[in-house]
């Protein structure tokens, strides 16, 4: 009998537990991907990511064909249709077992539950962990709960790594003669992702380049958006084109061993991979995070502003704060933004404009090529002060000094704000007086808020909350 591998956010043949286990059983293997364009829209995901998905599916089809495994791409509207679609397909193409890797979002988990209920009598369903080094729910406090603070989570994560290491699976053996490849072309609105070569080979090359050339200097350069100091692997990790285990293997290969503590070469990057896992484990433990709700329930009472003009100025990069505007225009034009800038613009939206983090989260999702719920929600709630282990509410980034610190010469600002090209470096973070003296004031908007006052207002908003409950137990009705 045949085994079916259902690909979702794990578009790779190497280190793919579901694919590996399905082929290891020695049966015929076939693969499926179910595209849900309506669900994609409901989740507000970006057209550039959809294009990247389409190209990565094509690359996956090629890789699978070389292994003698056919890939069928089915189309449904939303997840609701998936159980029936799958059942109908299985009637025509009987299989004895279904293999898949787990996903973390609540809609994906509900879909899987519905599939399980629909197909449980028909075939064996086996699910694996393919998106984290350690499975969701496997790292807990002594009382068996998920950590709500990053540092102890990271400590346990590292202890687990020391104890068991990580498991890196090879590409499975070919199952037969190479097949001819189907053409994959996803429908729906797309924006070209040509700047990001698709496929796991391209992802692996980028990983090798980063670990060979920039890993050891990452701690020093990662905060400067004008230089390429980070890996740019997020689009590949978000769709599962590469795996976190492969990232660990690359570190180990470069440094001969994995760094286990702060101060060791490569640790700062490893720590970011642990943040990624922290947010994914949190999403599974606290379903309310997938439902537009704050991690800290008391912060639901915050009185956010509904100033649509201010939100529009933020989205389009017209706030009058150069580092914020350069970052947003970069996002709008490329579909990607540097982590330091994500923190700055998220702080600006929530703490200077006092606009609900959910609006920023949704806008990011609609633009990012690497948009993924766990990291995006985690990042936004961290910046807004509503999340697990969030920035303290009184810590408000000053957009001008952030610009001065991390883009000292204004190179990044000038790249994205050509109207400031002539402004001297010393003036570029507050260019208005200089522009006025040159009679060029019309070129660039005046600041839409005064940072000092806005900061005090943000602190007052939080201070007005009733005593935050110590116990942040999940109050989710599951
Ligand atoms: C407001 C906000 C929104 C964000 N939205 C997303 C998102 O939708 N998708 C996304 O992948 N990341 C998101 N991040 C996290 C981070 O900004 C990006 O992962 C990073 O900028 C990607 O660049 P890189 O691949 O060069 O990262 P590197 O610095 O090279 O890090 C390697 C990998 O670690 C992971 N990672 C790094 N930093 C973080 C972090 N703070 N939280 C979680 N994972 C991390 C990513 O998978 C990244 O590719 C967000 C951060 C903030 C503050």
Write a structural description.
Helix content is 46%, strand content 6%. The chain has 20 helices and five strands. Strand 1 (3-7), helix 1 (17-24) and strand 2 form a beta-alpha-beta unit. The longest helix is centred in the first third of the chain and has 20 residues, at 47-66. The two termini are 37 Å apart. The structure holds flavin-adenine dinucleotide. The site of flavin-adenine dinucleotide has 29 residues, from helix 9, helix 11, helix 14 and helix 16.
Task: Output mean pLDDT.
Answer: 95
**Secondary-structure element string:** EHEHHEHEHEHHHHHHHHHHHHHHH
Name the CATH homologous superfamily of the largest domain.
DNA Cyclobutane Dipyrimidine Photolyase, subunit A, domain 3
Number of strands: 5
Beta content comes to 5-15%
CATH class of the largest domain: Mainly Alpha
The class by helix and strand makeup works out as: alpha/beta
Total helical segments: 20
Q: Please tell me the CATH architecture of the largest domain by its name.
A: Orthogonal Bundle
Count of folded domains = 3
Shape: globular
What is the rounded Rg?
A: 23 Å
- The helix fraction, in percent, is 40-55%
- Strand order within the widest beta sheet: 3-2-1-4-5
CATH topology of the largest domain: DNA Cyclobutane Dipyrimidine Photolyase, subunit A, domain 3
Report how far the terminal alpha carbons are from each other. Answer: 37 Å
Keywords: Chromophore, FAD, Flavoprotein, Lyase
Domain Photolyase/cryptochrome alpha/beta: 1-133
Protein name: Deoxyribodipyrimidine photo-lyase
GO molecular function: deoxyribodipyrimidine photo-lyase activity
